[in-house]
Design goal:
The complex is a heterodimer of chains A (190) and B (180). Chain A has 190 residues and is mainly β. Chain A is 12% helix and 54% strand. Chain A has an eight-stranded antiparallel barrel.
């Protein structure tokens, strides 16, 4: 009897603790985008990843209980006809060796005014770096939008090796811009 | 001998030098595999093209207010007409060539930034098939220009060395007509 009482209490505790985590809000492919801008001899060039998925557990009222994980299918890279066939190669994104890029949040905090900041790990080409990603979160009817941008250094992830590792022609900075549409909170009563 | 004025001569030879560079670089870079060197050459080629475009507009403006000296050397009417038509055509081509490159870059989604400093507005929105078609136009114009410049040069040399008139000398600093 004492044991079953203990298990019951533990289950209650588990329930209580799980409800303190933000509920998942399903990422909707339609309307969402992960795009980027890089510079080649000061010429801004843009592109995007067509395929990505994510697990977004977000509660605007309790950002500290929230978490975001984004997985980008690297092979879905699309920029321009000159870059596209080149970028899949091992010297650039090495699509065969590292098909996914991943962002995993460690902590999320509010910056006020609907603005938040996720600190986490960005893994590209098998190399992990700490990054902070500011974003806006806006409820839009039942859905919500997550918008933000941050700059990464391609050299940190060995994106562009060998003759491409200098930054005089293709700049080190890559601006990543995302617009994510997420559905209603799972299990939300509305 | 009535020569072209200094500004007209300077612009003529400067544009000739830049056109030569743009042609040689354009022809050479075309089949290079993608590399930082190629991207650098492409940028230089574009900057040269924009510079030529601006200089040709300057030439036309200058010419408008400073008409070329009247043709002094006697020559048949058909040659005068041919020369007039050739010069008009060369001006049209000198503007069409950089313009086609600019349109092509716009359609390819690669903006032109003059000397890496001054971004030119994109004339077309990104459209890869159109970009490919325009690159064919740009290439064809290159060979058309080469052909007409060759005729222009040969005509000038023929006037200088065969007719021994002042046609080449009046555009060339320091050059005198050969004695007949």
């Amino acid at each position: 009897m004492r044991h079953s009482g203990f298990i019951f209490a533990a289950l209650l505790g588990l329930l209580a603790s799980s409800s303190s985590f933000a509920a998942e809000r399903a990422l909707q492919a339609a309307g969402s985008s992960v795009a980027f801008v890089y510079k080649q001899m000061n010429v801004p060039l843009d592109g995007r990843f067509r395929k990505f998925s994510g697990k977004i557990n977000f509660d605007a009222a309790k950002p500290e209980t929230s978490s975001i994980e984004m997985v980008v299918d690297v092979a879905s890279f699309s920029s321009n006809e000159d870059a596209d066939p080149e970028v899949v190669k091992p010297t650039w994104l090495d699509v065969a060796g590292h098909p996914q890029a991943r962002f995993t949040s460690k902590s999320i905090k509010s910056l006020g005014g609907g603005r938040y900041q996720a600190a986490g790990t960005l893994n590209i080409k098998g190399i992990s770096r700490d990054v902070t990603v500011p974003f806006d979160f806006k409820e839009q009817g039942a859905n919500a939008s997550v918008d933000g941008q941050f700059t990464l250094k391609r050299g940190d992830y060995k994106v562009g090796e060998g003759e491409w590792s200098a930054f005089d022609i293709v700049a080190n900075d890559v601006l990543v811009k995302f617009h994510l549409v997420v559905g209603p909170a799972a299990g939300a009563r509305n | 001998m009535a020569r072209y004025n200094g500004v007209a001569k300077t612009l003529h030879w400067l544009v000739f030098a830049l056109m030569s560079c743009a042609f040689v670089v354009g022809f050479y870079m075309h089949d290079l595999p993608l590399s930082p060197r190629k991207l650098q050459l492409v940028s230089w080629h574009k900057w040269t093209g924009v510079t030529i475009f601006v200089l040709v507009l300057l030439r036309l403006t200058w010419r408008l207010f400073n008409p070329p000296p009247a043709q002094a050397s006697p020559m048949p009417q058909w040659q005068l007409q041919a020369s007039e038509a050739m010069h008009r055509l060369l001006y049209i081509l000198m503007l069409a060539m950089p313009l086609s490159g600019w349109l092509m870059s716009s359609a390819k989604g690669v903006q032109t930034v003059w000397f890496g400093l001054l971004p030119l507005p994109d004339l077309l929105s990104k459209n890869p098939p159109l970009g490919k078609a325009l690159s064919e136009v740009h290439e064809a114009l290159g060979f058309i220009i080469l052909g007409f410049v060759a005729v222009h040069v040969l005509a000038a040399l023929k006037h200088h060395f065969v007719d021994r008139d002042d046609v080449l000398a009046r555009m060339t600093p320091g050059l005198k007509p050969l004695s007949k």
